Structures are given as C-alpha cells and as structure tokens.
Amino acid sequence: MTDAIYLDNNATTMVDPSIVETMLPFFTEQFGNPSSMHSFGNKVGFAVKKARQQVQSLLGAEFDSEIVFTSCGTESDSTAILSALKAYPERKEIITTVVEHPAVLTLCDQLSKEGYKVHKLSVDDKGRLDLDEYKELLDNKVAIVSVMWANNETGTLFPVEQMAEMAHAHGVLFHTDAVQAVGKIPVNLQQTKIDMLSLSGHKLHAPKGVGVLYLRRGVRFRPLLRGGHQERGRRAGTENTASIVALGHASDMAAAHLTTENTTVKAMRDRLEAGILAAVPHCFVTGDVDNRLPNTANIAFEYIEGEAILMLLNKAGIAASSGSACTSGSLEPSHVMRAMGIPYTAAHGTVRFSFSRYNTMAQVERVIEVVPPIIAQLRKLSPYWGENGPLLEPDKAFLPVYA
Amino acid sequence: MWDYSDTVKEHFFNPRNAGAINDANAIGDVGSISCGDALRLTLKVDPNTDVILEAGFQTFGCGSAIASSSALTEMIKGKTVDEALKITNQDIADFLGGLPPEKMHCSVMGREALQAAIAHYRGEEWSDDHEEGALVCKCFAIDAVMIENTVRDNQLTTIQDVINYTKAGGGCSSCHEAIEEILTKVLAEQGQKPDFSQPTEQVVPKKPYAMTNLQRIRRIEMIIESIRPQLQRDRGDVELVDVEGNTVYVNMTGACAGCQLEMQTLGGIQQRLMEDLGEVIRVIPAKMREQQQLAQIQGV
C-alpha cells in the first residue's frame, strides 16, 4: 500500500513515526503507574506533566491544570455536557446545532428523552448558523451551549469565540467540540470565553484512545468517571501514559506545522477542488467555502451514490469517505448534508477528501486524473442520467413506486 | 469497508447488462431516493413464449445495489416470466455468494423491480405494500412502523416476542433500547406495561447454501472415519452414535474406552469437527447420555 493515497485525515491520521518512537519506552522500562511513590512511577509522572504542558501550549490555555486527559473526543463531549447538567440541576435546557457530531447529537437526543429541552440551531445552505436565532435562546434556563468549532464533513467553521462571549453575557457555560479544528487553525483559549473544549489525539497524528477535555479554571464541574484521584479527581482511572506522552509530542508538532496546514496543505486542497470541478460536470463543493478548515474538501457528485464512488476510488488506491447512507449502514444520507438542504440526488453522492501534511501535490494530480472517469462510469449506470447529461426533470422521468 | 464477497465485487466492478434496453416491453422502477437506492429494470420479453430475451438495469446505489442488479439480469435472461418470478431475494444474494445483513435490502429491491417489470408487461398495476418508518433493526432492515403494527396486532409484550415475530433485534442487539421504547409506547396505549425481565436469544442468520441435516451428519461421519485409523493404531476406536443439534455422541471402544487420555482424544475430535463445520460442536461419550437418561427415569 505504499502507493496508496490517504485522503481521509478527518476520520483519523497516521501516527507520526517520531511519535511512535516517544511512546515505546512507556510500554517497557517506563511501565510504572504515575501515581506510585517509587522511581518506576515517578519518571512517568513527570512525562505526563510534560505532555500536559505541551497540550496547554497548543491550546493557549492559561494553566496546565486546565488540561484533563480522557480516552477520546466522545468522552470529553459527554463529560462536558453531563457535568453542566449536574452542576446546574435547575437548568433544563441545552443549545447545540443540527450539524454536530453524533458524539453530541446522540447524547442530546437521549437527554431530551429524559426530559431536557434541546435547542438545535439550524444552518443555511452553506452550513452557516444564524446568530440571532442563537441569541434569542440564551437565558438562565440554559445549562450549556455545545457547538462544534469545525464541521467534520464540510470543514465549515463556526464563530465559537463570539458565541462563547454571547453565552457568558447571559451567564451560560460554553463547550466546543474542537476535534477537527485543533492543529489546523490557531487556537488561543486564554483570550476566549470558551469554558470547555474537546480534543482528540488521533486527529492530529497521535494514536487512537486518548483525548483531552479543556476545563477553564473555576468552571463548576462534576466528573463522569469517579474513583481515584487521577487528573485531580476530575477523571478517575489509571492514565493511558504512552498515549498521553504521544499526544504531548503530537501537540508540539502540530503547533510547529500550523503554518504548513494553512499554506502547503491548503494549496493541495484548493488544487484538488479546482481540478475536479473543471473536469467533472454537475458537481459542487458543499459547506461554507470561504470559511472552513484548510484541509477539507467535500464535493457532491450529482446523480450517483457515494459508496460506489469510494469502492472505485479504493480500487485505484485512493482513500476518501462519503456522506452516503450506504457507507454507514443506515438508510439516511449524512445529517449535515440534509441540514444544508442538499437534495437527495446529490447528498448521497458526497465525497470528502481530507488532507494532512503527509500528502503531496503529486498525489493530488493523480486523484484529479482518476476521479472524472469514475464519475462518468457510474453515471452511465444511473437511471437519473441520460445520454449526454442529467435527465431534464429527473423527478418526472424516473419516479420509483415507493419514494 | 463492507465485507463483500468476491462475486459481489466482481459484479460491481464489471456489471453485466448495464443500461436500458431500447425496445423494452417490460419496465419496473423501484427504490427510494431518500434511502439512496433506485433501480430501473428494462426487459425485452417475447410475447409468444413469455421468454425474457434481454434485460438491462440502471441503478442509483451502492456497490451491492449495482452488483444485485447485475446478478438479477444474469439470472432472468432466458427464463420465462413465470420462472423468473420464482426468484427470491435470497436467490439473488446466494448467486452473489451472500450479502452483508445490512445490505440484504439491495437484493429485495432487485426482486421488487422484477415484480414491477413483469406486472407492467402483463398490463397489471403493481403496488408495493412497503410502508416505511425509521429504520430500527439494521441487521434485518426492519422499520419502526412494522414493529409497532406487529406489537399491536399480536399483543406482544417482550423483546423476545418482537424477535420471534419480526426478526427485529435478533442480530447485533444494538436496537434493543429502541424496541423497548416501542413496546413501552404501544403497550401504554392499552394501559399495559412491557416485560423486560427475561434475557433474549440471538437469531442466527441462515448461511447461504447451509447443509441439510443429512449432509451434515454424513460430513460428521466422514470426519470421524478419517480419525479412526490413528486411534486403531493405538488399538482403540471410535464410533458415531448420534447427532443432536450441536452435540455429537460417540462410543469410545478398545484401548480408548476409559483410557486416561479419553477426554483429550474427545477434545481432539471436537476440534476437528468445529474446524471443518465452522460451528460450535460438543463431543460427548454416548454412555454419559445413557447415565443421564437412567438417572432421570430413576428420579421419576
């Protein structure tokens, strides 16, 4: 698979070899429990402390004690939202958005079954929020606002810094799921009013199974996992030391490459989009094109289905992902595409290409060559596609018995 | 990535009969664009003999939807419409060497397109009784409306009932929470409460080309026969007595009977059988069953 082209970095990233190197001693000679008094644990304790400072520096947090290591982004999201509900039991409302990651949406759906009122902010056709709608909802009945910093499917950025200011003006806690944003755009939490933030290691070249909850000093907090005194009692359970050390190193590397992301990586993304849009008719970029992550391109190919595209791309050695229903085993296309009002004939054909600094421009050129014939091949099979293009009124020309 | 069979992949990468038949006299359109599946089947049928001369498909859908369409057109060509109608969605899946459970609906769509096209050929109105709700059981593609109606019509009260009547929840069990909610809701309408006290059993999906009982017993006999020479070398022997579900009863004779290594030998036979049949098998000395039966009789 050395020739394979990996363009699915929003799903997960390659662990950098130098990061693997830093982890290894913590499986062997540095196996001690950081809580132990003896010298086996003591050194490990210092390594965890250093990693905490590295993450603090990447996030621009004021204190290293604001960094709580968790097992993943999902755990951080659940911890943040459930903590706010427990800390403010008289507040029964939550504000979030329709395009959040399932880590937040599924939890909120469950909470609404348990009696909480969940407000989901809608988005327009480019995936943008209406801040007036948001402002109307802010009052002392709201326990927490949870809004993602960058959308995982389209890369669209939300104005979370401004939204956190607005929440604070109404005395409401603000959490952001920033697993896609951290490492790709500048973050400086001490200059914001963001109270809690979720980060996931494997999105920035650290391994899977480690995450962070940023918890601003002074924010009322109730732990999800109770037990030992680890993480100052805010997240019990023996630390995943090797992965924590890896995340620390990955944070340093991410900080060093922030410019690369916004120049080299962005240039590759832009070239890919321009190349595909020029060669393939009836396709378009989804999301807020002028305000998104530098590494993400989400292209809707009309009248065909995404899983079929991915299978053909995979055969050509290219890895990407799709918002199609079939890839997930559900029967509904991506909730993000539906929320933006993308028609079904396009929503099922969305393909996300997400880059990292380990991609090359040569790879981009290869993808630009491979994609157009794949799209043409599948359109030939499509009942919505005629001899020379889409049927003029696909809905009338092809109307299945049940729809 | 889905675990597609080689046949599925082959039919996806090289679809047969893709595109519309120009002078078709049977057309079936089925599918649901919201679900990302739509299929138009076009057939040319000889009006004198009812034989399907040509078949073509156009599919908007995933890899297995395209493969199912391709398989269907291959299967029906040369058949009369009556013969073609006997093809079930399981036949389509079998032709493809099986489909992942979540993808069985692709074969259902093929079967429905065939029904629709033949109805069109015969000048009949084809209507689908498909009523769609939110998908609850992804393993067997059962939606909420279907479960609700079945619970109501049959006065079901437990998840096991729902599994037995609809299959929903009989696979991975991740939808049991959703089924509990449906049961609670429907029973509340009748002023009743569901019963969640009993654990549920898993439905094991039937494997394509599963062996018949006779074939399976013959297979077991054959494997045991192949082990016998080794035992005979040590002046022992083994004899197949009975097969009951997953339990195989044997008699150990000669030097093997009562030998200290008897249990170990049985374990070896059991391992061979499991590897060959691909299922969990217990090998038990027949005399143990006799002792148990005797104990039961004496107990009475």
UniProtKB/TrEMBL annotation, chain A:
Belongs to the class-V pyridoxal-phosphate-dependent aminotransferase family. NifS/IscS subfamily. It holds the Pfam family Aminotran_5. Homodimer. InterPro entries: Aminotrans_V_dom (IPR000192), Aminotrans_V_PyrdxlP_BS (IPR020578), Cys_deSase_NifS_bac/arc (IPR017772), Cysteine_dSase (IPR016454), PyrdxlP-dep_Trfase (IPR015424), PyrdxlP-dep_Trfase_major (IPR015421), PyrdxlP-dep_Trfase_small (IPR015422). Residues 5-367 form the Aminotransferase class V domain. One of its GO terms (biological process) is amino acid metabolic process. It comes from Thioflexithrix psekupsensis. GO terms for molecular function: cysteine desulfurase activity; iron-sulfur cluster binding; metal ion binding; pyridoxal phosphate binding. Its cofactor is pyridoxal 5'-phosphate. This is Cysteine desulfurase. Catalyzes the removal of elemental sulfur atoms from cysteine to produce alanine. Seems to participate in the biosynthesis of the nitrogenase metalloclusters by providing the inorganic sulfur required for the Fe-S core formation. It catalyses: (sulfur carrier)-H + L-cysteine = (sulfur carrier)-SH + L-alanine. Keywords: Iron, Iron-sulfur, Metal-binding, Nitrogen fixation, Pyridoxal phosphate, Transferase. Its EC number is 2.8.1.7. The keyword Iron applies. Coiled coil: none annotated. It comes from the Bacteria.
UniProtKB/TrEMBL annotation, chain B:
GO terms for biological process: iron-sulfur cluster assembly. Residues 135-184 form the BFD-like [2Fe-2S]-binding domain. CDD domains: IscU_like (cd06664), NifU_Fer2_BFD-like (cd19947). Keywords: 2Fe-2S, Iron, Iron-sulfur, Metal-binding, Nitrogen fixation. Signal peptide: none annotated. Its cofactor is Fe cation; [2Fe-2S] cluster. GO terms for molecular function: 2 iron, 2 sulfur cluster binding; iron ion binding. Residues 220-284 form the NIF system FeS cluster assembly NifU C-terminal domain. Pfam families: Fer2_BFD, NifU, NifU_N. Binds 1 Fe cation per subunit. Gene3D superfamilies: 3.90.1010.10, BFD-like [2Fe-2S]-binding domain, Fe-S cluster assembly (FSCA). InterPro entries: BFD-like_2Fe2S-bd_dom (IPR007419), BFD-like_2Fe2S-bd_dom_sf (IPR041854), FSCA_dom_sf (IPR034904), N_fixation_NifU (IPR016217), NIF_FeS_clus_asmbl_NifU (IPR010238), NIF_FeS_clus_asmbl_NifU_C (IPR001075), NIF_FeS_clus_asmbl_NifU_N (IPR002871). [2Fe-2S] cluster binds at residues 137, 139, 172, 175. Coiled coil: none annotated. Fe cation binds at residues 35, 62, 106. Residues 4-124 form the NIF system FeS cluster assembly NifU N-terminal domain. It comes from the Bacteria. May be involved in the formation or repair of [Fe-S] clusters present in iron-sulfur proteins. Belongs to the NifU family. This is Nitrogen fixation protein NifU. It comes from Thioflexithrix psekupsensis. The lineage of its organism: Bacteria, Pseudomonadati, Pseudomonadota, Gammaproteobacteria, Thiotrichales.
